[in-house]
Amino acid sequence: MAFPKTIDELVAAGYKHEGTADCRGCGAAIEWWRTPKGKKIPMDHGTATPHWSTCPRAEDFRRPQAGRSTFEALKE
């Protein structure tokens, strides 16, 4: 199933809006949504665009790949 492209599609797919905040990395206004599976996802304010796809500091918040320590990921 494709990712919802509008806020109406997010709601219809079972996503729930949980509030607004400012990104700790870039300061942009974001909205927190909960996915149908219960995970939190930051979205650009007023859109259905995941904030990690537009945030210039997204790498600061990514978890290391499975099987690699944070230290190994930072060395690269």
List the helices and strands and how they pair.
Blueprint: H1 7-12, E1 16-22, E2 29-34, E3 40-44, H2 70-75
Antiparallel strand pairs: 1-2, 2-3
What can you tell me about this protein's structure?
This protein is α+β, with helices and mostly antiparallel strands and 76 residues long. The chain has one domain. 16% of the residues lie in helices and 24% in strands. It has two helices and three strands; from the N terminus they run H-E-E-E-H. It has helices at 7-12, 70-75, and strands at residues 16-22, 29-34, 40-44. Strands 1-2-3 form a three-stranded antiparallel beta sheet, with no helix packed on it. A hairpin with a 6-residue loop joins strand 1 (16-22) and strand 2. The N and C termini lie far apart (33 Å). The model has no long low-confidence stretch (mean pLDDT 87).
